[in-house]
Amino acid sequence: MLGSWIQQVALSWLIYRLTGSVALLGVTTFSSLLPILFIGPLAGAWIDRRDKRRLLILVQGLLALQAASLALLTAFEAIGPELIIAMSVLLGVLNAFDTPLRQSQIGAFVDRREDLPNALALNAMLFNSGRFIGPPLAGLLLGLTSEAVCFAINALSFAALATGVARIRVAETPRAAGSIGEVFREGLRYVWTEYPPRMQILILAVVNITASSYAVLLPVFAKDVFTGDARMLGWLWGAAGAGAFLGTIFLATRRRLKSLVRVVVGGAGLSALALLVFAYNRHLSLALLAMAGVGFGISVCNVGVNTLLQSAAPDHLRGRVVSFFSSTRFGFDAIGGLLAGLLAARIGVQAAMLVEGLLLGAFFAWSLRLVPRLRADVGAAPTRTG
């Protein structure tokens, strides 16, 4: 996780340093995340028919190769906008397999189904601790070394997960039967016809097409609004990561799945408010606090929806359900990043952030009507998540 966040911050800084284009920041984010939207659901069907553990190790090797190639191209100054976009597309394709593989394997490491929410919360805590530490560390590394070094560190970091998974011995999860098309349609039918997963994925989509677009705009805020450098970008991104980490700690205190419904909707409202505060603020301390609020809100929404979906999903459908979650989470993040970059290029970065906050705020007001039925459908059975 540390390596991935270091690469993400370094790549954003490299793009803006080379081109000064906020629109290209949006295009690059779009390119790296869009494959997950289209490939992810099919990848989930394909994954459910194979040995997930071996496939996960293979994907880590391919991700390491992508990061190493990016490091070499940058070190020899052979990188440009076209190659950056191409490498981002490749990363998106690999992540379309990596994310559902990692998430669906968590269930194989947990003996009792009632412990699954706890495992998901711990996994999210690990992810967000990397998000908290990685960006400031990336800013420090960029100040001392270069983007190429950051990419090389990420390439080496994939060996940790591959080694860890290789050393774990668990029973192989059941494989889905039938063609990829049949397996895909079975998963799609589940998430579309059942009211709770359909509405949970809707909330997930709106939060990520609006609030998560802050990541595309942060390099512009760091350089142009706060007149800082890569370290400033690292602090802003790190504040969002700190909020996200606190969000996972908060989720670990929720003892009932039923209570997560209000938490998810409340996360959307908090994210909207924090975006509005951040948009035209020039005080660094308040900006960091607002970024922490954005990170907290997005985290409790994303992790909460993931927990609700996986806790309700039948075991044989889990890979597909996770793939629909990840394709929505990252795919709509991609669309939102592209739209935010294009909007900021036209009306300015602060006005674009304001628009995102207003749109999400309007959706939050509407989504309050969903809470009673979602809580009733989830049920009141106690499930410890912390």
Polypeptide structure, described:
This protein is mainly alpha-helical and 386 residues long. The chain has one domain (2-170, 177-378): Growth Hormone, Chain: A (Up-down Bundle), CATH 1.20.1250.20. It is 82% helix and 0% strand. The protein contains 15 helices and no strands. It has helices at residues 2-19, 22-47, 52-75, 81-106, 116-144, 147-167, 180-193, 195-210, 214-225, 230-251, 257-279, 284-312, 318-347, 349-367, 371-378. Helix 1 packs across helix 5, helix 8 packs parallel to helix 13 and helix 10 crosses helix 12 (284-312). The two termini are 22 Å apart.
Would you kindly provide a brief summary of this structure?
Helices cover 82% and strands 0% of the residues.
SSE string, helices as H and strands as E: HHHHHHHHHHHHHHH
Using only CA atoms, what is the Rg? 20 Å
Quaternary structure:
single chain
CATH topology: Growth Hormone, Chain: A
User: Number of helical runs?
Assistant: 15
The parts where pLDDT drops under 50 for at least 5 residues are 380-386
- Tell me the fraction of residues in β-strands, as a range: under 5%
How many beta-strand runs?
A: 0
Largest sheet: none
CATH 4th-level superfamily: MFS general substrate transporter like domains
Helical fraction equals over 70%
Reading off the top of the CATH hierarchy, the class is best stated as: Mainly Alpha
Based on Cα principal axes, name the global outline.
globular
